[in-house]
Amino acid sequence: SPVSVNRILDRVFSSPPEFINGNQELIEVLLCGGPLGNAVHEGIVKATMLANVGIIQLLLAHNADINYNGAAAVAHAVRQNRGDLLGLLLQGQKLKQEIASELVCLIPTAASSTDRVIILSKLLVNGASGRRCSELLILAAERDDLDTARLLITARDQTGRPVCSTDHDSARCLKIPVAKGYIPMLKILLDGAPSK
């Protein structure tokens, strides 16, 4: 029965990583059995943690929900600075906007500007906006990360409004480049039209 198949698939994904990684064919057969339950969704989280692209693709083809459990699989990819896995997970599905916004804070502070922009752009396409984006703008100003700042300042939400505010936290993102003499950063941020 589909419930039994789900239970077996759940056991497979509860197994040691070596077993999971070595049994893609078994997983595919179980998926063809039409599991009824959350094992497919739990599996996408586990496969992402193992960075097993083949199993991730297989689970996505069998309708694994990337928003499951607060988008845990996507959160792991962001936290681990894995733009490649993030791109794979987001290929055929869209994150819930509120989840995309919250995931912005998981972008590693140690990520390179290039990696940060890759991950952030994928979250912005999925509707990320608000406080977390404004906080990332402050971090970009502190690190003189022009690419991240430019992306945040130019990005717009579905209604055409800016995804972040230069006024956040008493305009801290503007105060930083002034104090540190980061003139190119200040020019980018002033394009964000702070309140008058």
Throw out a few tags for this protein.
mainly alpha; 196 residues
Description of the molecule:
It is a single chain. By secondary structure, the chain is an all-alpha fold. 65% of the residues lie in helices and 0% in strands. The chain is elongated, with a radius of gyration of 20 Å. The model has no long low-confidence stretch (mean pLDDT 95).
Unreliable spans are none
What characterizes the major β-sheet? Answer: none
Count the strands? 0
What's the average pLDDT? 95
Distance between the termini: 65 Å
Beta-strand content estimate? under 5%
Structural class: mainly alpha
Instruction: Enumerate how many helices there are, as a single number.
Output: 13
SSE pattern, N- to C-terminal = HHHHHHHHHHHHH
Q: Give the radius of gyration.
A: 20 Å
| Helical proportion, percent range | 55-70%
Principal-axes geometry comes out as elongated
SSE layout:
Blueprint: H1 2-13, H2 17-21, H3 24-32, H4 39-49, H5 53-61, H6 68-79, H7 83-89, H8 97-103, H9 113-125, H10 131-143, H11 146-154, H12 168-180, H13 183-190
Helix pairs in contact: 1-4, 3-5, 4-5, 4-6, 6-7, 9-11, 10-11, 10-12, 11-13, 12-13
Question: Summed up, what is this model?
Answer:
The chain is built from 13 helices and no strands.
